[in-house]
Structures are given as structure tokens and as C-alpha cells.
Amino acid sequence: MGFIFSKSVNDRLKAQQEFMATNSRLQLERQLLMQNQMRERQTAMQIAWTREFLKYFGAFFGVAAVGLTAGAIKKKNPGLLLPIVPLSFVLAYQYDMGYGTLLQRMKGEAENILDTQSTLLELPKGPLTYEDLEKLRRSQSKFFIEK
């Protein structure tokens, strides 16, 4: 009789462990999906911001280029065209970020760093541990009493 009862308990325990493992896996998958969705949305917002900024900066660049060119011709001073050079670099960068391949190139370089130069990614003093956090918390806490 005891054998039948213990077998039933063991079967239930095993089923419960399998359920918990499946549930943990599902929860982790959902968390990963959510984090990826948040990352994608943040990246989309950054690209959208860049494209919007490009519209305003492009208008500013156009007005500045026309004004500086007109001033350089009127005053016969080609030095007035000098500000167009750095402004054109900023415009080109913003265009590449918003509509070009800058993000793909950055992704490729990031993958290269992860694959070949992972030592650059190490944190000073190594990864943070629970003991480090506890030590810091104890040193900053006014209410903690060590026993």
C-alpha cells in the first residue's frame, strides 16, 4: 500500500517539476520577446527622430548655404563659404543615419567587436557579484545592524 502511495506522490512531483520547468521556459521566452520588442521600438524611435531632425537641419543647411554663397559673392570673400564644410558633414551623417546604411555598418562592427575583441567589453574589476552589492549596501545603509 505504501509503495502505491509513494509512486503516486513521485509521479505528481515529477509532473509538477516538468510543469514548473515548462512554465519557467515560457516566462523566459516571453521576457526575451518583450526585451527585443522594446529594443526594436527604441531603435525605431531613434531612426524616426533622426529623420525628423534631418528635415529641419536640411532646411537650415539649405538656407545657410544660399545665404553664405550670396554673401561670399557679394563681398567677394570666399572665406564665408567655410562653414558649409562642417555643416555638410553633419548633414551627410544625419542622412546616412536616417536613410542610409550607417546602422547596418554599426551592427557589423559591433558583431566584429563581440567576435574578435571581446576583452574590450570586460568590466573593470570583473562582473558585479551579489557579495559586492551587499558590501556596498551595508556601507551605505544607516539602518543595517551587523550581528
Percent helix, as a range, is over 70%
When the domains are counted, the total is 1
Largest sheet: none
Q: Count of helices? A: 4
Poorly predicted parts:
none
Mean pLDDT: 91
Separation, N- and C-terminal Cα atoms: 50 Å
Q: From the alpha carbons, calculate the radius of gyration and give it in angstroms.
A: 30 Å
Would you report the number of β strands? Answer: 0
Work out the strand percent. under 5%
The computed structural class is mainly alpha
Helix-strand pattern: HHHH
Principal-axis shape equals elongated
List keywords for this structure.
147 residues, mainly alpha, elongated, transmembrane
Task: Tell me about this structure.
The chain has 147 residues and is mainly alpha-helical. The protein has one domain. It contains 4 helices and no strands. The protein starts with a helix and ends in a 7-residue tail after the last helix. The relative contact order is 0.05. Pfam families: DUF2368 (PF10166). One of its GO terms (cellular component) is plasma membrane. Keywords: Membrane, Transmembrane, Transmembrane helix. This is PLRKT protein. One of its GO terms (biological process) is positive regulation of plasminogen activation.
